[in-house]
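User: Here's a structure from my thesis project, written as structure tokens. My advisor, Dr. K., wants to see whether a designed sequence matches the one we expressed. Can you design one independently, without my sequence as a hint?
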């Protein structure tokens, strides 16, 4: 699948999703599905608590197209700098900014003008000041080396056609000891080729998902340590049938093959910090 064509399709779909939100409508499933989402979307629904959504503009909640709640699981600390890859309408950035407090900062990175405009308007409505939304691509993060304490993302890395570059860029901008803490769709076992080839399902957060082993290997090869993948929601047959609908495939047959093999997961890893220099005062010490 051509990476640039994929990127253009993702940009168009998520731009349209932002415009839908501006009219007060809930966008298509995970931002990509063409089907109507009158029923709860198995990937994007019920991710945030009532206390979290109560402090956010309604448009930020409507524009939430993720598969998890990385801000709740990332254990953010006062004063930290957080970067959200593919920040969309800004829901996770605004929640992160409150968690790190006025001495910290939350960046949101998105390539879609309409989503950036929506996110900045949501920031204005929320009154949160320690936030900055940046235009750019997650394969080329516009921040300096070692400038971020924590990287979060919510169902976005699976959309990239160059995942090794995304992980390499995340590693670059993290400080030594920095944490990678993302929610994403991850596969357990093989996914039928017809699903993998579907642009509709790629933009819908399923076809481009890495397997658990692929994600672990990619993080390890980049240099990350303490890698952990925790399932937060496994999509069974009925869920699979819901997100396969509208992709032009044999939904009933493929749902049986896909059900239980796709999950929302929280992926954690740490960029190693150099060991502190050891002092030595014994007779065998070397200068």
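Assistant: Designed independently from the structure alone:
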């Amino acid at each position: 699948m051509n990476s640039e064509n994929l990127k253009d399709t993702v940009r168009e779909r998520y731009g349209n999703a932002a415009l839908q939100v501006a009219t007060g409508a809930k966008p298509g499933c995970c931002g990509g599905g063409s089907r109507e989402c009158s029923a709860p979307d198995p990937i994007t629904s019920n991710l945030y608590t009532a206390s979290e959504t109560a402090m956010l503009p309604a448009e930020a909640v409507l524009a939430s197209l993720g598969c998890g709640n990385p801000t709740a699981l990332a254990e953010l600390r006062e004063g930290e700098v957080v970067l959200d890859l593919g920040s969309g309408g800004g829901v996770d950035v605004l929640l992160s900014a409150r968690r790190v407090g006025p001495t910290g900062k939350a960046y949101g990175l998105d390539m879609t003008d309409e989503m950036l405009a929506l996110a900045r308007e949501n920031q204005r409505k929320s009154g949160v000041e320690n936030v900055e939304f940046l235009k750019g691509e997650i394969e080329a993060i516009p921040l300096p080396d070692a400038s971020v304490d924590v990287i979060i993302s919510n169902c976005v890395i699976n959309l990239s056609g160059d995942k090794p570059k995304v992980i390499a860029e995340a590693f670059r901008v993290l400080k030594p000891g920095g944490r990678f803490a993302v929610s994403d769709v991850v596969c357990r076992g093989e996914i039928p080729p017809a699903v993998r080839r579907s642009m509709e399902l790629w933009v819908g957060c399923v076809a481009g998902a890495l397997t658990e082993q692929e994600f672990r290997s990619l993080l390890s090869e980049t240099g990350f340590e303490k890698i952990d993948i925790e399932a937060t929601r496994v999509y069974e047959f009925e869920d699979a049938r819901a997100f396969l609908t509208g992709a032009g495939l044999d939904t009933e047959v493929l749902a049986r093959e896909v059900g239980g093999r796709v999950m929302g997961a929280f992926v954690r890893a740490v960029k190693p910090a150099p060991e502190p220099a050891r002092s030595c005062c014994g007779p065998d010490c070397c200068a």
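When you compare it with your expressed construct, this may help: The first strand starts at residue 81 and ends at 85.
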